[in-house]
Backbone:
């Protein structure tokens, strides 16, 4: 079964900045499970997967614009230090901040006595990425999954 809109794909991936060591891999945990065609993964990776099938492996370079977007200026925010609990903070460190819009990965820029400047850009924004992908399996999405726009059951939403 080929990968196309309204199908659910399970896959392993390893991601690196183009020409560099891997940043992250799913190899030591469960594969990622996503519904195709509903904006659940970065567009460059979704495009590269289209028409592939279970057992296929491939590598693809995805430019920043088709990955996590370009870095935007003016995305620095000053946050009271107490919001970080007892975490020891260092510039360059990535932390998860609870925001009004839910948890968000941010990068620490500057640590002051009582406030911390963080960069709200996605940590991989502005980076051209290379993905190595292994398709584990592909199935039809259920009508309910298509309606909700995400995967249910194993590897997906439980509600
Ligand atoms: Zn749902």
Residues:
């Amino acid at each position: 079964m080929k990968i196309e809109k309204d199908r659910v794909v399970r896959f392993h991936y390893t991601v690196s900045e183009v020409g560099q060591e891997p940043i992250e891999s799913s190899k030591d945990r469960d594969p990622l499970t996503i519904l195709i065609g509903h904006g659940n993964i970065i567009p460059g990776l979704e495009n590269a997967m289209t028409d592939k099938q279970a057992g296929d492996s491939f590598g693809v370079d995805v430019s920043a614009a088709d990955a996590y977007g370009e870095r935007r200026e003016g995305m620095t925010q000053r946050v009271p230090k107490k919001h970080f609990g007892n975490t020891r903070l260092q510039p360059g460190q990535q932390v998860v901040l609870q925001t009004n819009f839910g948890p968000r990965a941010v990068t620490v820029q500057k640590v002051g006595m009582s406030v911390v400047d963080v960069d709200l850009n996605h940590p991989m924004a502005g980076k051209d990425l290379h993905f190595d992908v292994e398709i584990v399996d592909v199935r039809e999405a259920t009508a309910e999954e298509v309606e909700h726009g995400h995967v249910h059951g194993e590897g997906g939403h439980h509600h």
